[in-house]
Amino acid sequence: MKIVDISLPIDDSAFEVHKLKIERISHKQGIKKFNRLIMSKTFLGRIKYLLGKRLIKEDQLPDKEFLSLEIVHSPVHIGTHIDSPYHYGSHCEGRPSLMSEDIPLELCYQDGVKINVSYKKPLELITASDIEDYLKKINYKLKPLDIVLFYTGCDRLFGTERYFKDYPAVDISAIDYLLDRGIKIFGIDTMGIDPPYRYMLKKYLETKNINLFYPAHFYGRKRKFFHIERLANLERLPPFGFKVICFPVKIRRTGAAWTRVIAILGGE
User: Fold this and answer.
1) Strands (E) located in the chain
2) Residue 267 pLDDT > 80, yes or no?
3) Is there a single domain that holds both residue 48 and residue 115?
4) Which CATH number covers residue 186?
5) Which H or E element spans position 218?
6) Which residues span the domain enclosing 49?
7) 0.85 cut: is pTM over it?
């Protein structure tokens, strides 16, 4: 059995369009934070703290170190994550949309299929014909619940501004093709399934056609699906014959959740 990590990290050193901050409190700093937090719970404790009193002193700790602590301030759409219907709209198929905590977990551990569309240029669309042609090439027929992964190779741009503007998008015809065959989850190694934001905005302002603005995401109001964004390392996977695990982090009332997506090759 071989496990391949096909996820990107939450990385505050990488270029991002959304604000991301990770506070890292070291082992040495930890004892200071502990004393400040605990003693500040009462007025008398705050006074004692300001006067230099401490509940626990550094010299009392093993190696003079406390526990480290990292605090992540991040949107759920940074790092590899899975989007749920609630992200697309309040209702899906005429019913209240499912949130990330509502994803049926059995959907998140299924056979995987990689669709190689690495020949696609930025701003081009991945269509139903692209999927069908590739499946014929590898002699594979999709079955219900397969997790389909679109391989574009754009994860190599992660950490740069180009990651947010140089990638192909998923056409609605491709989404219909998958859903009509019982696919519930699909993923891609780009930052999103729609064209780059600036491109969509430009086209909308030129044409005033709102259908050009987040077409794939808004389509999730009409038909139910989950999709994974910001995958990586898909070049390391065969076209099929592997399992995908993409259990979301259990976060209350969100339209997306982080997930450490892995592929298992060579049996379970």
Assistant:
1) 2-5, 21-25, 69-73, 81-83, 91-92, 95-96, 109-116, 125-126, 147-151, 169-170, 185-188, 226-229, 240-245, 256-258, 262-265
2) no
3) no
4) 3.50.30.50
5) helix 215-219
6) 21-73
7) yes
